[in-house]
From TrEMBL:
Residues 3-260 form the NAD-dependent epimerase/dehydratase domain. It holds the Pfam family Epimerase. It comes from the Bacteria. Belongs to the NAD(P)-dependent epimerase/dehydratase family. The lineage of its organism: Bacteria, Bacillati, Actinomycetota, Actinomycetes, Micromonosporales. This is NAD-dependent epimerase. InterPro entries: Epimerase_deHydtase, NAD(P)-bd_dom_sf.
Amino acid sequence: MKVLVTGSAGFIGGYLVEELLGRGHEVVGLDNFSKYGPVSHSYDDHPNYRFTEGDARDTELVTKLLEGCDHFVAGAAMIGGISYFHAYAYDLLATNERIMAASCDAAIKAHQAGTLKKMTYVSSSMVFESTDRWPSREGDQHEVPPPMSSYGFQKLAVEYYARAAWDQYRLPYTIVRPFNCVGIGEGRALGSTEVMSGNVKLAMSHVVPDLVQKVLKGQDPLHILGAGDQVRHYTYGGDLARGIATAIEHEAALNEDFNLSTAESTTVLQLAEVIWRKIKGPDTPFRYVSDEPFAHDVAMRVPDVAKSREVLGFSADTGLDTMLDEVIPWIRQAVEDGRL
């Protein structure tokens, strides 16, 4: 297939492009480098990859890039860690709505022209932000209160775009919900808001790189948000890419939605101690203090992964130790280079 991936230079996008190329697909990438600035990837010169620097809110540009494409992965978004939800509450909503509307407008035209077969929408575990039931199953997002954060609310809106474009224009879709992606490729976000955690400035990205950089920079005791009893499912970026690519290709994914995640639960405090031990060794006592948590720091984010396993044959099996063995050296180099 020929696949357009918006947000192709992003965190998950980078893993996805590599996975799609490895499966023999032709990939067209679009990104405006708004989060980290220009980044490079090992596949940049791949003969089946063509990249355009541009804005996914530009309907005319997206329409042009969709020419000849069989599939469209709508992955572009203004996105960040929990601190983004507060620093950019309006921008997350407004920017991502404009991206989504432009993407759907272009996709509908391409489908009506007879070329585009399906659109895959990258949603988020944050659609379950206000849930009162765990594990969170596909469909629960329609039965529990809506997300409190503007980011979570907009990601729920993404799923409504998918179904509305099908209802009115018969644009086929698949919705995927990644849970807590862990991997390499993240840097310090370009946002103007500075967020401190103890004596270390957060990268405004995600909990794993922020905890790693704090330990590497010698923070002792380690500062964590809240009591550390927040439950997460840390999922390897390569596994998520494999899940998304499988959902793209699988006939049974048509007009369906899937949680893509590891089945393993880990608390933030457990994660922090594993990172501490990997960097400092077994002899340095693990010390931490609790900082005031952000308002939208969800206590439990636990997915039901049965549907993706049974329908797609997908499971995210990379363990936390393996992920950290890849991420920690990458973060260490970024700290040494002054990028974090």
